[in-house]
Specification:
Structural class: mainly alpha
Keywords: Membrane, Transmembrane, Transmembrane helix
Number of strands: 4
Number of domains: 1
Largest sheet: 2 strands, antiparallel
Shape: globular
Helix content: over 70%
Number of helices: 7
Strand content: under 5%
């Protein structure tokens, strides 16, 4: 089962845009002690993701298809996965170590998100646009384990952090699955890259046909 892009990439981008700033505003839900709001830093992160993402996409999508081509993106994505999983673990640990209105937690979290945006967008985009893995039956136990873990975090954690428990655990489990499949089964061309190569081949064939017709007409 080949997918358009790694689940980890989607979840990491979503994690950066989840409301992450806590203020002692009046609770909107009974039982909540703090309100969760967006930060203007997240708009900067979104702009970086879009601008760098488009740049990397244009740089990599039309690379010639060779066996060596997948080595570099695979190595880069390995770094992205390890870094992203590490960030998610630290983010989860801080949710238990610091109280919701902690400025220290917010500062560290924002810095980690900024670094993650740079790493995932610059190095991970090349992989996402050109490579994929064949997801197999391991995705089912991964989903089950991730769901049980999220339930456990919700049970012992704070209700204010419920959405962050969700997204960071999804990053961890999807990243571990992607890392295992990538190195155990290898990587294949993504659908996006195959479509791009088909378009290039069709364009080259049309150009060759026009050249042949022009040469015949000249004769």
């Amino acid at each position: 089962m080949k997918n358009l892009a790694p689940y980890f990439y989607f979840f990491s981008n979503a994690a950066v845009l989840v409301p992450n700033k806590y203020t002692p505003s009046p609770p909107k839900v009974v039982g909540w002690e703090f309100g969760r709001t967006f930060s203007y830093y997240q708009l900067v992160f979104l702009a970086i993701m879009v601008s760098m993402g488009i740049t990397r996409c244009l740089m990599t999508i039309e690379k010639e298809d060779t066996p060596e081509r997948r080595v570099r993106p695979k190595r880069h994505m390995t770094f992205c996965l390890v870094f992203g999983i590490g960030c998610a673990v630290v983010q989860l640990a801080m949710l238990f170590w610091f109280e919701p209105p902690s400025q220290t937690r917010y500062t560290i979290s924002t810095l980690l998100q900024f670094l993650q945006v740079l790493v995932i967008t610059w190095f991970g985009m090349e992989y996402c646009m050109t490579c994929s893995v064949n997801y197999n039956w391991l995705i089912i136990p991964t989903i089950i384990t991730c769901s049980l873990t999220i339930y456990g975090f919700d049970w012992i954690g704070r209700v204010e952090y419920s959405k962050l428990y969700l997204i960071w655990n999804m990053c961890i489990f999807s990243g571990l699955l992607e890392l295992w499949l990538m190195w155990w089964n290898g990587v294949v061309n993504s659908y996006i890259y195959d479509i791009s190569m088909d378009n290039i081949r069709n364009s080259d064939e049309d150009d060759d046909e026009r050249c042949i017709n022009c040469s015949k007409f000249s004769c």
